[in-house]
Design a protein that fits this description.
The chain is α/β, with parallel strands linked by helices. It is globular, with a radius of gyration of 20 Å.
Amino acid sequence: MAPEAAVASPNWIEVSLCTPPELVEAISNFLIDEDSNGVVIEDLDADDAYRDRRQLGWLWIRAYFREEGFGDLEERLHTYLDELAALFPTSEPPVLDQRVPEVADWSQCWKRFFKPLMVSDRILVRPSWEDGSVPSGVAAISLDPGIAFGTGKHPSTRLCVRALEDEVLFPLDDAPAKNIFSMLDVGTGSGILSLVAARLGAPRTLGIDNDLQAVEAAQNNVRLNDLDKKVEISDERLDELGETFDVIMANIVADTLISMKDDLVNRLAPQGVLILSGLLRNQGAWIKHEFLQLPISFVNAHHEDEWCALVFEKI
């Protein structure tokens, strides 16, 4: 489908792309590199015009740009989408939509996507600008995601939390909890999984990301939740880390997980647990097969809608 023309605005342009999952990371990075004031990634709703693509894992990517100079950026965006089509010839191209947001202030534009949310029975994630009572037995995390991915709304994040609770910290069937001293969150984004781990009792968590803006956002969220003594955020590369971890979480697209599978398993301590998320159901068997070539065993799979998370243990 041909992109619509940009609509003139005295302040902001909202660019929305309905995108297949394999292109989400590349397009998000492009928009951030083009100095978007933020990127929001969200599910398609049941009443969405493109709801037939929900089962394929398609997502909305929304970004905001000032009107000034947008014409040049629009041309670069079209060129980039053409380049992606050549690189991913089997993928259906994203559907691009551009409009004037209802409010002119970016801080108000993206806040409409972020509301308090129970990501599990034990964890409430809420925006930093909202407070209020928290149910008994529930831990609250305040979050200001900025441009970084991760508010708990996406199923892949919730699946990671569920796997961490059910397989590690609060095992089902009265199994004993694992002794956890260190945890690694690969591709931390807003830092949400590192913060969840700390709130649930993990003594030390390291979150890493190669996006410096995401690192800054995650560090801000650590301070916001007074978890500096438990959570560290870094731009270190996975293959540069010298220590091993009792639990590693990686909520990343499938191709990236495959490319770093050796490093992920190498950084896992003996009997350590590896949680992989960001996967479509139809990718689960492929990822499982690839990782079982390494010295780990399969533990369990968790599912929500068309998404899945896989849990392994180091042999």
